[in-house]
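Quick note —
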Amino acid sequence: MNKTLKKTPFYEKHLSLGAKIVEFAGFQMPVMYTSIKDEHLGVRHKAGIFDVSHMGEFLVEGDDAEAFLNYLTLNNVSSLDDQQAQYSAMCYPEGGIVDDLIIYRFEKNKYMMVVNAGNIQKDFDWVKKNLKGKVSVKNASDDYALLALQGPESIKILKQLVDFNPETIGFYHFLKGSVAGISMIISRTGYTGEPGFEFYHKPEESEKLWDALFEAGQPYGLKPAGLGARDTLRLEMKYCLYGNDIDETTNPLEAGLGWITKLDKEDFIGKKELMKIKESKPARKLAGFILRERGIPRHGYPVYFKDEEVGVVTSGTQSPSLNQPIGLAYVRRDLAKTGTSLEIGIRNKKVRAEIVKTPFVDSKPY
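Predicted structure written out below.
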């Protein structure tokens, strides 16, 4: 394996559990341990642990930090209280998406941005390029390891290791506390649609945290889960994946991210173009579909309506929860309605599909 690839602090744990390791965003990461289906259903019904230490963390501080982040991102940073997190994104002036991210507010003028692993350098360059006012930014990605505990049993598991009731942390809120005696940020967030927590901690404490969680989680069926299950879990929820469903060629309004795009706030990067797109209505929309015949839809496959090519698949898989092939696709706006019959070009064949309501499964993340 390429020696220039980074390893997370959990790498030896993955190897000891027989994980299949793949290259992902410059890291050696576990794609699965047993099978994607087994790990996926384990998280949906009980609990799973994901190593997400490859994600990027930027610290943003200073008198003008709030105003700067409001200018840089789509959502309204001013609405955040201390110990609250917010899903958001950054756009280019033309309206294309730089990245989607989460902002954590520690206190007034002290924030953390969490960005996608494959975009760390690009995002940090973008943040620095657009700096305004009295603000300092630091790429602190190497200072944090990140472990996600997800699934309906996650609260019971965490209760064994903390001196407070984890249910008191609201969805998209966090606190500074300790798990198994290890100091960290405990965040009620995740990428699965299930109840769960993410633990931002020092890399040197990673193995101790892993062992403590597995010991506490054993009676509750806790399993390690890899990137494969992480992808199928998020797809069932219609959570966008950067590089597949969103990128610089897509805008947040067509991607279904209008709810984080606060066009009524003061100027932000991309606002003018997004106002125009909203006024004229996006030409296409990201919609969920189910195949009505056998086949697996994949990123880049064409979408047809009455022999006319009308869109493109961005994500697709065999849904472990539904036992059906599902996917997301950008399609012409008038065809994005639930119940519309389309066809997906899979190799040399056209396979019947139907636009359905999303998320594909019931969400109960809190």
